[in-house]
Each structure stands twice: as C-alpha cells, then as structure tokens.
User: Fold GMP synthase [glutamine-hydrolyzing] from Thermobifida cellulosilytica TB100.
Amino acid sequence: TWTMVNIVEEQVERIRAQIGTKRVICGLSGGVDSAVAGALVQKAVGDQLTCVFVDHGLLRKGEAEQVEKDFVAATGATLKVVDAQERFLKALAGVTDPETKRKIIGREFIRVFEQAAREVVAEAGDGDEAVEFLVQGTLYPDVVESGGGTGTANIKSHHNVGGLPDDLQFTLVEPLRELFKDEVRKVGEELGLPAEMVWRQPFPGPGLAIRIIGEVTAERLAILREADAIAREELTRAGLDRDIWQCPVVLLADVRSVGVQGDGRTYGHPVVLRPVTSEDAMTADWARLPYEVLATISNRITNEVREINRVTLDITSKPPGTIEWE
Ligand code: XMP
Assistant:
C-alpha cells in the first residue's frame, strides 16, 4: 500500500544517510524482525551488508532453509551461515533445568556471533570499509519498554552494544524502531519476503530446546520437529493461523506410555499441543480449536512420528500456566 511504500522509502533514505559507504552486519534469527530489518538495509546499501545466521539447530522444520534460501533469494543479501548445531548440543548435554538451558544458549549464541562478526570485520579489511554498523530489529514497543520514548536506552548503547566485547563495537542501525509488529509484517510483504517468514508466529530465542522437557538431544529435536511441522501444517490448512497467537508443541521426552501402533505395542512419548489466543503474551487463553482439526493433528502425528504415541491438549490459561512449558 501507499503508506508501506512511504515507510520503506523513508527508511531506505535514513539508512543510506546513516551508513554512508561503511560496512554493516545483521544477525538473522529466523524471525520476522531481523529479516525485515535486514531486508531494508539490503535495499538501502546492498553489498555493504553482510547478514550472519547462527544455526543453533533449535529452529523448527524448514526455518533454517527459509533463512538460507528464501531470504537470500528474496533480498539478494550476502549471507554468512555458521553451523553451530554440534556446539549447542554439546553445551546442552545433560541439562534439564529451563533457566540453565536459556543461559547456555544465550552464552553460546553471543560467542558464536562474536566470532562470526570478527570474521566479517577481518574480511572487510579496514579504512573506509570498516564494519561500523550492526542492524537490530528493535520495534517501537521494545523502545518504549526499555524506558526511552525517544529511544535513549538504545542511543546510549551507541558504540557499545550490550554484551559485545570492547574490540567489537558497533553503532546500531534500527530501521524498525518506529513500527509495530503488524507494520513490520506489511513492510516485509512489501519487500517481497516469504509469507511463512513474515507471518511466523512468536517463537522463543532458545527455540525447541525449551519445548523438550528433559535433556535436549539430536534425536529428540528431530522427533519434535516432525510433530511441530504437522501441527503447523494442519493449523494453516484449517485457516487458523491468524486466529491463534501461537501453538507450541511440547515433547515430554522423559515420559513414556504404552500404545498400540502399526503391528504392535509401543512404549513411546507424549506431545502436548499448547494452542493459545493472546493480545500480548502477558496473559493468554487456550484456543478452542475445532475438534476436527485436533483429531487430524493427533492422527497424523501418531501415524507419522513413530516415537510419539499420544497427543494431549493443554487447556490451561495464562496465568496460571505460562505459554511455554519451560
Ligand atoms: P511465556 O512462556 O512466558 O511466554 O508465557 C511468553 C512469550 O514469550 C515467548 N518466550 C520467549 N521468547 N526467549 C524469547 O525470545 C525466551 O526465553 C522466551 N520464553 C518465552 C513465548 O514463546 C511467548 O510468546
């Protein structure tokens, strides 16, 4: 639409004015915000941008490919992919406590991203070409939440992005800081990003690791990824994507129960469907999904994912339950 075209043009102008001829990097998470911010900067300064995608192996089925193929095809951006799956699995081995999982993932992520950023900086050489800017997908509500109506929190972090070491300092480029989520999605559409990326439901940074109740292993991730993909596919097919806020699928990896599947008895794991409606994730209600849709999801998961022999439904509001199980 006209306004989206305006927003895009205005931001492109501003980004060009801010970055000039310098180099800039952007971390992609698989989420909407970083993708739209990256796409805007690419449109503004083209090859001066290098995107970095740390693949921690905790994304859902197809999401890493979305970044590596679809995002690149849609934007023409230069992408550096770091395959850190083994590293994250090693760091998470034996860990079951939810907050410990989050801490480990956050810590490893920063380390891997720093290393990648150093490589990009080194490859860019120096002088006028130095990498001086880092793109962040900060939205208007984040700006308000962090205490600065005029964005003081982030202006203060100018040349000192929280958490990065002294020898890696960047000035922030935040092209989404005046936008709300729905506007970001429209800008993403305007820029030609894939619909699955633009309309992606909220997904936690620690990813599937906090949807496996118990230790995170490669096998468990593979099981959950399949079950989650089926649930998402059926919700989309039923046209329910925009009616629900999100629908985590949770693998109770340490629980087993007896079932009959195919030609015999099995001793498999349950998954929990956690469909919720919400305005802002602070409170939520369980979504009253049609029985037919639930039945299809349950049948498909238990037929197609050998290790899962039960599908259960979480009917708890928030509070008292949180949306995620960890
Ligand atoms: P809860 O489970 O607290 O989740 O009701 C509220 C919203 O936040 C998301 N969530 C996270 N997002 N890192 C994130 O980036 C996290 O560690 C995290 N934990 C929960 C959750 O998916 C929901 O949308």
